[in-house]
TrEMBL record:
<dbReference type="Pfam" id="PF00005">
    <property type="entry name" value="ABC_tran"/>
</dbReference>
<dbReference type="GO" id="GO:0016887">
    <property type="term" value="F:ATP hydrolysis activity"/>
</dbReference>
<comment type="similarity">
    <text>Belongs to the ABC transporter superfamily.</text>
</comment>
<dbReference type="GO" id="GO:0005524">
    <property type="term" value="F:ATP binding"/>
</dbReference>
<dbReference type="InterPro" id="IPR027417">
    <property type="entry name" value="P-loop_NTPase"/>
</dbReference>
<dbReference type="InterPro" id="IPR050683">
    <property type="entry name" value="Bact_Polysacc_Export_ATP-bd"/>
</dbReference>
<dbReference type="InterPro" id="IPR003593">
    <property type="entry name" value="AAA+_ATPase"/>
</dbReference>
<dbReference type="InterPro" id="IPR015860">
    <property type="entry name" value="ABC_transpr_TagH-like"/>
</dbReference>
<feature type="domain" description="ABC transporter">
    <location>
        <begin position="2"/>
        <end position="218"/>
    </location>
</feature>
<keyword id="KW-0547">Nucleotide-binding</keyword>
<dbReference type="GO" id="GO:0140359">
    <property type="term" value="F:ABC-type transporter activity"/>
</dbReference>
<dbReference type="GO" id="GO:0016020">
    <property type="term" value="C:membrane"/>
</dbReference>
<dbReference type="InterPro" id="IPR017871">
    <property type="entry name" value="ABC_transporter-like_CS"/>
</dbReference>
<dbReference type="InterPro" id="IPR003439">
    <property type="entry name" value="ABC_transporter-like_ATP-bd"/>
</dbReference>
<protein>
    <submittedName>
        <fullName>Capsular polysaccharide transport system ATP-binding protein</fullName>
    </submittedName>
</protein>
<keyword id="KW-0067">ATP-binding</keyword>
<keyword id="KW-0813">Transport</keyword>
Protein backbone atom coordinates (compact mmCIF):
# COMPACT_ATOMS: atom_id res chain seq x y z
CA UNK A 1 0.00 0.00 0.00
CA UNK A 2 1.19 3.50 -0.91
CA UNK A 3 -0.79 6.37 0.62
CA UNK A 4 -0.35 10.09 -0.03
CA UNK A 5 -1.70 12.52 2.55
CA UNK A 6 -2.17 16.17 1.49
CA UNK A 7 1.02 16.09 -0.61
CA UNK A 8 2.01 19.34 -2.34
CA UNK A 9 4.87 20.10 -4.71
CA UNK A 10 5.59 22.93 -7.13
CA UNK A 11 8.50 24.24 -9.18
CA UNK A 12 9.53 27.77 -10.05
CA UNK A 13 11.18 28.74 -13.34
CA UNK A 14 11.48 32.18 -14.88
CA UNK A 15 9.18 33.62 -12.25
CA UNK A 16 6.45 31.10 -13.10
CA UNK A 17 5.17 28.54 -10.59
CA UNK A 18 4.14 25.12 -11.87
CA UNK A 19 2.03 23.11 -9.42
CA UNK A 20 2.36 19.34 -9.87
CA UNK A 21 0.70 18.27 -6.60
CA UNK A 22 -1.88 20.37 -4.76
CA UNK A 23 -2.77 18.83 -1.37
CA UNK A 24 -2.90 15.46 -3.11
CA UNK A 25 -4.47 12.57 -1.18
CA UNK A 26 -4.39 9.21 -2.94
CA UNK A 27 -3.95 5.51 -2.17
CA UNK A 28 -2.41 2.81 -4.37
CA UNK A 29 -3.61 -0.60 -3.12
CA UNK A 30 -1.08 -3.36 -2.54
CA UNK A 31 -0.68 -5.64 -5.55
CA UNK A 32 -2.48 -3.29 -7.96
CA UNK A 33 -0.92 -2.20 -11.25
CA UNK A 34 -1.99 1.39 -11.91
CA UNK A 35 -1.47 3.56 -14.99
CA UNK A 36 -0.52 7.15 -14.17
CA UNK A 37 -1.96 9.40 -16.89
CA UNK A 38 -1.64 13.12 -17.55
CA UNK A 39 -0.43 15.63 -20.09
CA UNK A 40 3.29 16.44 -20.38
CA UNK A 41 4.34 18.40 -17.32
CA UNK A 42 1.41 17.21 -15.22
CA UNK A 43 3.80 15.77 -12.64
CA UNK A 44 3.76 12.03 -13.34
CA UNK A 45 7.52 11.49 -13.05
CA UNK A 46 7.70 13.92 -10.14
CA UNK A 47 5.08 11.89 -8.29
CA UNK A 48 7.04 8.68 -8.89
CA UNK A 49 10.20 10.30 -7.55
CA UNK A 50 8.39 11.50 -4.41
CA UNK A 51 7.03 7.99 -3.81
CA UNK A 52 10.53 6.58 -4.33
CA UNK A 53 11.94 9.06 -1.82
CA UNK A 54 14.39 10.70 -4.24
CA UNK A 55 12.39 13.96 -4.16
CA UNK A 56 10.76 15.49 -1.09
CA UNK A 57 7.25 16.96 -1.17
CA UNK A 58 6.91 20.58 -0.07
CA UNK A 59 4.27 19.49 2.43
CA UNK A 60 2.23 16.45 3.34
CA UNK A 61 3.47 12.92 3.83
CA UNK A 62 3.73 9.62 1.97
CA UNK A 63 3.23 6.32 3.79
CA UNK A 64 4.54 3.09 2.29
CA UNK A 65 3.89 -0.47 3.40
CA UNK A 66 6.24 -3.01 1.80
CA UNK A 67 9.20 -2.41 -0.49
CA UNK A 68 9.12 0.05 -3.39
CA UNK A 69 11.58 0.24 -6.28
CA UNK A 70 13.29 3.33 -7.59
CA UNK A 71 11.64 4.60 -10.81
CA UNK A 72 12.44 1.85 -13.34
CA UNK A 73 13.56 3.55 -16.54
CA UNK A 74 15.20 6.41 -14.61
CA UNK A 75 18.96 5.86 -14.70
CA UNK A 76 20.21 9.17 -13.35
CA UNK A 77 21.26 7.96 -9.90
CA UNK A 78 24.32 5.88 -10.78
CA UNK A 79 27.71 7.05 -9.54
CA UNK A 80 29.59 8.05 -12.66
CA UNK A 81 33.06 7.31 -11.31
CA UNK A 82 32.13 3.74 -10.40
CA UNK A 83 31.95 0.91 -12.93
CA UNK A 84 28.69 -0.78 -13.77
CA UNK A 85 29.65 -3.74 -11.58
CA UNK A 86 30.58 -1.48 -8.66
CA UNK A 87 27.25 0.32 -8.92
CA UNK A 88 25.44 -3.01 -8.91
CA UNK A 89 27.37 -4.22 -5.86
CA UNK A 90 26.59 -0.96 -4.05
CA UNK A 91 22.86 -1.39 -4.70
CA UNK A 92 23.07 -5.03 -3.58
CA UNK A 93 24.49 -3.93 -0.23
CA UNK A 94 21.76 -1.29 0.16
CA UNK A 95 19.00 -3.83 -0.40
CA UNK A 96 20.63 -6.74 1.39
CA UNK A 97 20.89 -9.11 -1.56
CA UNK A 98 23.78 -11.30 -2.71
CA UNK A 99 26.03 -9.05 -4.79
CA UNK A 100 27.49 -11.87 -6.92
CA UNK A 101 24.02 -13.16 -7.79
CA UNK A 102 22.83 -9.66 -8.67
CA UNK A 103 25.89 -8.93 -10.82
CA UNK A 104 25.33 -12.18 -12.75
CA UNK A 105 21.66 -11.34 -13.24
CA UNK A 106 22.43 -7.84 -14.49
CA UNK A 107 25.17 -9.06 -16.80
CA UNK A 108 22.91 -11.67 -18.32
CA UNK A 109 19.90 -9.42 -18.80
CA UNK A 110 21.50 -6.11 -19.80
CA UNK A 111 23.71 -7.46 -22.58
CA UNK A 112 26.39 -4.94 -21.60
CA UNK A 113 29.09 -7.61 -21.31
CA UNK A 114 32.58 -6.21 -20.75
CA UNK A 115 31.20 -2.66 -20.61
CA UNK A 116 30.08 -3.40 -17.05
CA UNK A 117 33.75 -3.09 -16.09
CA UNK A 118 33.85 0.52 -17.36
CA UNK A 119 32.94 3.69 -15.41
CA UNK A 120 29.28 4.60 -15.85
CA UNK A 121 30.18 8.21 -16.75
CA UNK A 122 31.20 6.88 -20.18
CA UNK A 123 27.90 5.08 -20.78
CA UNK A 124 25.44 6.27 -23.37
CA UNK A 125 21.88 7.01 -22.26
CA UNK A 126 20.80 3.66 -23.70
CA UNK A 127 23.49 1.79 -21.80
CA UNK A 128 22.47 3.48 -18.56
CA UNK A 129 18.86 2.53 -19.23
CA UNK A 130 19.82 -1.09 -19.84
CA UNK A 131 21.82 -1.16 -16.61
CA UNK A 132 19.01 0.48 -14.66
CA UNK A 133 16.30 -1.84 -15.90
CA UNK A 134 18.36 -5.00 -15.49
CA UNK A 135 19.27 -3.94 -11.96
CA UNK A 136 15.66 -3.24 -10.99
CA UNK A 137 14.51 -6.63 -12.33
CA UNK A 138 17.25 -8.32 -10.29
CA UNK A 139 15.60 -7.32 -6.99
CA UNK A 140 12.12 -8.38 -5.88
CA UNK A 141 9.96 -5.43 -4.77
CA UNK A 142 6.37 -5.32 -3.57
CA UNK A 143 5.67 -2.34 -5.83
CA UNK A 144 7.54 -1.27 -8.97
CA UNK A 145 7.63 2.35 -10.09
CA UNK A 146 7.83 2.32 -13.89
CA UNK A 147 8.78 5.43 -15.88
CA UNK A 148 8.80 5.06 -19.67
CA UNK A 149 10.34 1.60 -19.69
CA UNK A 150 9.19 1.18 -23.30
CA UNK A 151 11.85 3.72 -24.31
CA UNK A 152 14.67 1.43 -23.19
CA UNK A 153 16.98 0.02 -25.87
CA UNK A 154 16.03 -1.56 -29.18
CA UNK A 155 12.81 -3.44 -30.00
CA UNK A 156 14.19 -6.82 -28.96
CA UNK A 157 15.39 -5.51 -25.60
CA UNK A 158 12.09 -3.69 -24.99
CA UNK A 159 10.25 -6.97 -25.56
CA UNK A 160 12.50 -8.69 -23.03
CA UNK A 161 11.89 -5.84 -20.58
CA UNK A 162 8.14 -6.16 -20.87
CA UNK A 163 8.26 -9.93 -20.45
CA UNK A 164 10.45 -9.60 -17.34
CA UNK A 165 8.17 -6.94 -15.92
CA UNK A 166 5.06 -9.04 -16.57
CA UNK A 167 6.70 -11.91 -14.69
CA UNK A 168 7.45 -9.64 -11.70
CA UNK A 169 3.92 -8.24 -11.67
CA UNK A 170 2.45 -11.68 -11.14
CA UNK A 171 3.50 -11.24 -7.51
CA UNK A 172 3.78 -7.43 -7.16
CA UNK A 173 2.05 -4.17 -7.92
CA UNK A 174 3.16 -1.18 -9.98
CA UNK A 175 2.61 2.49 -10.67
CA UNK A 176 3.30 2.97 -14.37
CA UNK A 177 4.03 6.03 -16.54
CA UNK A 178 4.21 5.46 -20.30
CA UNK A 179 3.24 7.15 -23.55
CA UNK A 180 2.37 3.71 -24.93
CA UNK A 181 -1.33 3.04 -24.39
CA UNK A 182 -0.82 -0.55 -25.53
CA UNK A 183 1.83 -1.16 -22.89
CA UNK A 184 -0.36 0.37 -20.18
CA UNK A 185 -3.30 -1.80 -21.19
CA UNK A 186 -1.14 -4.91 -21.07
CA UNK A 187 0.22 -4.33 -17.56
CA UNK A 188 -2.36 -2.18 -15.72
CA UNK A 189 -5.90 -2.75 -14.47
CA UNK A 190 -6.82 0.72 -13.15
CA UNK A 191 -5.73 4.31 -13.69
CA UNK A 192 -5.07 7.70 -12.12
CA UNK A 193 -5.40 10.92 -14.10
CA UNK A 194 -3.29 13.90 -12.99
CA UNK A 195 -4.40 17.41 -13.90
CA UNK A 196 -3.40 20.76 -12.38
CA UNK A 197 -2.03 19.16 -9.23
CA UNK A 198 -5.10 17.01 -8.57
CA UNK A 199 -5.64 13.29 -9.11
CA UNK A 200 -8.69 11.21 -9.99
CA UNK A 201 -8.77 7.44 -9.45
CA UNK A 202 -10.54 5.09 -11.88
CA UNK A 203 -11.08 1.39 -11.22
CA UNK A 204 -11.78 1.03 -14.96
CA UNK A 205 -8.67 1.72 -17.04
CA UNK A 206 -10.76 2.45 -20.14
CA UNK A 207 -12.60 5.17 -18.24
CA UNK A 208 -9.29 6.68 -17.16
CA UNK A 209 -8.13 6.77 -20.78
CA UNK A 210 -11.41 8.38 -21.83
CA UNK A 211 -11.10 11.16 -19.24
CA UNK A 212 -7.44 11.66 -20.17
CA UNK A 213 -8.29 12.03 -23.86
CA UNK A 214 -11.01 14.57 -23.07
CA UNK A 215 -8.53 16.63 -21.04
CA UNK A 216 -6.01 16.58 -23.88
CA UNK A 217 -8.72 17.82 -26.24
CA UNK A 218 -9.62 20.82 -24.11
Amino acid sequence: MIRLHEVSKSFHSGGVETVVADRLSLAFPAGASVALLGRNGAGKSTLLRMIAGTLKPASGRIEIAGTVSWPVGFAGSFHGDLTGVQNVRFVARLYGVDSDVLVDAVRGFSGLGEKLALPVRGYSQGMRARLGFALSMGIAFDTYLIDEVTAVGDAEFRTRCEEALADRLRHAGAVVVSHSAGFLRRVCQSGVVLEEGRAAWFDDLDEAFSVHRRMLGQ
